[in-house]
Amino acid sequence: MRHPLLGIKAGLELLSRTLGPQLTGLDDFRLVTAQVARLEELLRTWQDLFASPLSGAGTFAVEPVVSRALDLFGHRLRPFADRFSYAPHAEAKAHGIAQALLHATSNLVANALDETERGSGRLLVRVLDAERQIEVRVSDEGSGIVAANRDRIFEPRFTTKERGSGLGLYIAHSLMERSGGRVWLVGEDDPSRAAWARTEFAISLPKERS
After folding, report:
1. What is the pTM of this model?
2. Among 7, 104, 156, 167, which residue carries the largest CB count within 10 Å?
3. ∠ CA(18), CA(76), CA(162), 5° rounding?
């Protein structure tokens, strides 16, 4: 993945030098360059996370990590307008590995976008302060997950997408477990679940250690 990104970055730099302000002043060009920079950051995060053993656990503010994950999908979220909403919790602090949370949140948001961006469904991201943990909830009004698949969604290579790898949820689940947290599919009887959600996933980490 690194080599294609380097090629894209080099091509953008060449175009900016050749065409100057008539290109670099365009909103679309700034969007593309910002997305490439964020993808580079995400790639570095993956490389760090897949190093063994996993290290770097500590206390961190959750809201900036979730906001950074959402920024990665800004170009896809923008057309949603009021169908997308984000409910942050500025005071929330968790103990774990911020990069693992970034990866897991990005994966859940990407899946929710795949389910909703071609229709009229809603997408909601929330940061919740639970009794002993901080949760990130991603809810969507897509097609939902059939009962027969619910026990398999975290298995490696299991996917219902035509071009899916079946690794996204598996990796997110594994990384969060290794960093002291968890990822799960929220049940319909959960009192904090969005009432309209067809699918809701949650990520949790223990609260800031005193």
Report:
1. 0.78
2. 104
3. 110
